[in-house]
Amino acid sequence: MDGIIFDVDGTLWDTTEICARSWNAAIRACSGREAGLTGKMLEGLFGKPMDVIFRAVLPDADDALRERLIAACCESELNTLKTERVPTYSGVPETLRLLAGSYPLFIVSNCQKGYIEAFLENTGLGPLITDYLCYGDTLAPKSETLRRLVLKNGLKAPVYVGDTEGDAAACREAGVPFVFVSYGFGRVESPWRSVGSFPELSELLLKDN
Fold first, then answer.
1. Which residue, 181, 190, 188, is CA-closest to 91?
2. Domain extents in the chain
3. pTM of the model
4. Stretch among 17-21, 54-58, 191-195 having the lowest mean pLDDT
5. Each residue of 132-157: pLDDT tens digit?
6. CA angle at residue 75 from 66 to 46, to 5 degrees?
7. Residue 200 burial (C-beta neighbours within 10 Å; 0-12, 13-18, 19+)
8. Top-level CATH class of 3-14+88-205?
9. How many whole angstroms separate alpha carbon 178 and alpha carbon 192?
10. Contacts of 90 (CB under 8 A, 6+ apart)
């Protein structure tokens, strides 16, 4: 193993309640609609690209309106993350610091541009992350975004840590072993490895180091 790549939502932190609140406000201000989103509703959608999420959230909106609402919601969300502290899952900062002592750490997510930067600034974990890439940068499926980050950083044997079947499928397509965190938003059948808490990663990934 020569690198560890992480998903964000459902793996490192949970912003579903914050996003539901900020998206509801943005949708109301931009269109007068009441979306009625909740954090629980978004749990089943996070991990997908924003256009896919908003087709599910606003199925009756035309493409032009949906694009305006996506832009408004992303802006509202990122502004909120600049001012409202979001806790990570238990043990994330300590475990990332421990892992960073042995391996370079990366992030690949299906999020929009600016979201990973907001995560790193909000949590103060930026110095631990070597590089990152997202859907907003590549406009490509997660498997391709993952491949691009691996190629860019010359990785030969990385692992990916995530929480959904979409993450697992992207890893299969990219040829990267997948570690499933079972506390997240999804369920995965037959991952390469599975952990029930973030600190368990240090036991799994550092055991032979």
1. 181
2. 3-14+88-205, 16-83
3. 0.91
4. 54-58
5. 999 999 999 999 999 999 999 999 99
6. 65
7. middle
8. alpha beta
9. 5
10. 197, 198, 199
